[in-house]
Design brief:
This protein has about 70 residues and is an all-alpha fold. It has one helix and no strands.
Length: about 70
């Protein structure tokens, strides 16, 4: 395979992280999907050691949509 060394190569890291399960209406009751995603992403960055400023794109999703944050 012939690589063009004049251009920087892009790297893609694939990993996953989730928050623990809790009973409905308990510990996460007052949190939005954004809050829960933030918790998972902070842990993922900590676990991998990747600096946040090096991340260009994140793909995430929710299992149960909330009308306050339906565009996650």
């Amino acid at each position: 395979m012939n690589y063009d060394n004049s251009r920087p190569r892009r790297a893609v890291f694939v990993d996953g992280c989730r928050i623990p399960f809790l009973r409905s209406g308990t510990g996460y009751r007052d949190l939005t999907a954004y809050d829960l995603a933030r918790m998972a992403l902070q842990r993922l960055l900590f676990r991998t050691g990747i600096a946040p400023e090096l991340v260009d794109q994140v793909i995430l999703g929710t299992v149960v949509s909330n009308v306050r944050t339906s565009n996650v």
